[in-house]
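worker-03 picked up job from queue 'complexes'. Input manifest follows; two sequence lines, order preserved.
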Amino acid sequence: MRDTVGALLEGGVSGLGYALLGASLILIVGTTGRFHFAIGVNYLLGAYAAVVVSLVAPWPLAVAAGIAAGAAGGALIEAGLYRRVERAAPASALLNIFVVAFALMSVTEAVLRLVLSSGGGVRRVDGFADAQISLFGVTLTKLNLWQAGYVGLTLVVIHLLLVLTGAGLRVRGVRSNRELATVHGMDPRRVYVLVFALGCGAVGGLGVFAALRTAATPDMGLAPAFYGFVIAFVTGLGRPFHHALVPGLAVGVTERLLLNVMSPAQTQITIFGVLFLLLVVRAALASRWFVAWSTRRAGVGDLA
Amino acid sequence: MNPQIQLDIVNGCLIAGMLALSINLLLGYTRHISVAHAAFAGVGAYGATWFSVQQGLPFPVCVAIGAGLALACGFVVGLPSLGLMDEFLILLTLCIGALFTAVVTSAPDLGGAYGLLGIERVSVAGRTLLRPSDWLPYLALGFCAVVAVCWYLTRSPYGRRLRAVGDEPTAAGALGLPVQLLRLQVFTLAAGLAGVAGATSAYYNQVTSPAMWNFNQTLLIIIMVIVGGTGTLTGPVLGAVLVTVLPRALQFAGLPADRAGTYSQIIFAVLLVVMVLARPGGLVRRRPGGRIVSGLFAGSGEAGEESPAVTREVTVRAEGLTKHFGGVVALDGVTIALPERQISALVGPNGAGKTTLFNALTGFLPVERGRVFVGDVDVTAMSPARRARLGLVRSFQDVRSFATMSPLDSVAAAVPARHGADLTSALLHPRATRRGERTARRTARHWLGYVGVDPGHAGPVGDLSFAEQKLVALARTLASGAEVLLLDEPLSGVDERWVDSIMELLERLRDDGHTICIVEHSLHVVSRLATHVFFMESGALTATGTVEELLGRPEFADVYFGAAS
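worker-03 finished. Artifact:
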């Protein structure tokens, strides 16, 4: 029983990470429309920034450095690249931005392999020693607690920022109706940079925790980008970003429980299969046929 | 350099060219993206290899099985996703790519991370293909076959429909083109062609492994097309040569193979970004407005005009249409019958529900209650394309041109399906296809002449003035065989000097037997054109009659006409 609770908690912590990835992408893609697959780059930047800073500073500062690196990277990608790509060919912006993001992932991985050629680019964050903690008879790791705290705090901070500040109001305005927001004097370009900084900063911090757990590796960005996008789309890009908690937690817990009965490879395949099915269902719910059918049904219900 | 190494590079270019040409059908024509293209090629490769190793089947059978499996996968993946946002398709195909890599990496029967070895050597006429020089003629043959398929798909009348779907899918659907079917066919075919390339590659390399068909490979294939040039046949081939030759060149320059691969990865990614920013069309650009359909499918004697007469009497009516957007009543039980062979106008203040009613009548917006009839046919559950094929076609406020096509092709694309317009008939019925294409061009010429646009204009529609684009859009609508035209603000944004000529045109169309309904704010236009006016307010039809009758009622003048005049 205690093992199961422990596994659930462990899965919950992974799930919180997935939820933050999804929430960040809901914030970014839902506001800007940019298919920022290079979120994996921000994850990588966070992890490797932490590796560098941990050489000279304690690990909490390394986490802060990872967040800052992710945020700066995101803002630079938006302001320096995506905006220009959109300007160059507005009609093909979605495709071109996705392809450029994909290329960014590839080039970042390759550069890291070249620059950190020894050991295949694998690096550890110094100064952090994980330990097990027993709470009410359930064993947890210190790192898991820190990660859960980080995700919770980040979601709360972003939520408060969006709800209480003028910048948050501008984000909500542009997210709701870009043209109208522009008419009211808001600059969507600045808002885009802000949401990129917020979302990518949050993901950069997650990269640090991944590096703390095992190590930073040049290819560590692909899977989080993939999971994040699926969770964001399954949640719905128009939904409030914290709604990603439910699918994120569901994926994390399911993945951990499956590991009890399957090999890691089989678990990965099952999870990919489940994510694919979730997407198909989500896609079917958004299809013209389903919308027409459900609209008619709603009409019949009203009559009844 | 050893000649066999040179030929090996040539052979690599041929296989890469097949892959690039196949994904170009999506990126360059129907303009949607698959990130699972390497996975589809991998399905072909693994399928062929497994049947060769386990079942000992011969090369052509294994390649056919591999291609068939990839084709089937393409169909299964394309089916649920093609009617959706492009973002969904990207993500679904990403998921398929990840799933494919995970499955083949973990399946012992498929060789795990190391892949499958031991594929049978290919023998032709008793001669085993061992060296690159042995393979070259057969790979060249396979490459030419893929080029021929792609040429057929893109330069036949079918290809013109693909271009229309790629340029403006909503307008294509409104004109009666089966957008989702065309997209599904191309997606499936592209996956099948990738399967052919994958299976061939497995035999040529004598191995297939997960690393050969992962995301990086997909990225390379996309780079070939975007750098080389989308929507052309030469561009992707040029891109394939570039992507194949560069890593080898770096090796010859003295870099170790792994470093050369990494440097190539960086160079390609940077090149891609530079091309997207500086030359979005790629190195070989498609000429906008150039003739799409090859002379082979049209033959001679295409001059002249075909003057199709209005033969059907189509009536459009709706009963009790109801639609809400959240708490807002967009349509409140609207019942309407458009007067036949007359021009009617739908008027009312902004937000009254006029465009929503057009959307509901043409099927772009599902309604909660009510029915729409075209003639006696209940079309409520039909798609916009099916309604268009019954003669009910709409235009859009924002034109939605097939911007890269010439006016002639733009209008010819809308001519209802005939021989050559579907996937296979240009192959199976070449003479009928030529006749059909000549008819389509004559019809297009007729309608372009009718609306006053030069059918010989060689540039793309996107280069025309806004008014001329509206006229081409009208010609396109007429060429679709529409009997009932719903025109959403046909004069908005048009220069004053064009207003009279467009109004004369609409009167001519009415005299020729078309039923027309316009959404219009200008009282001057409504007074001149409309014999019957429907007044809408807050989603409901609150009055009907002539302009004079409505103007005589002060409450309507206050709500609408007063504000408009």
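worker-03 released lock.
The first strand of chain B starts at residue 116 and ends at 117.
Chain B touches chain A through 52 residues (CB under 8 Å).
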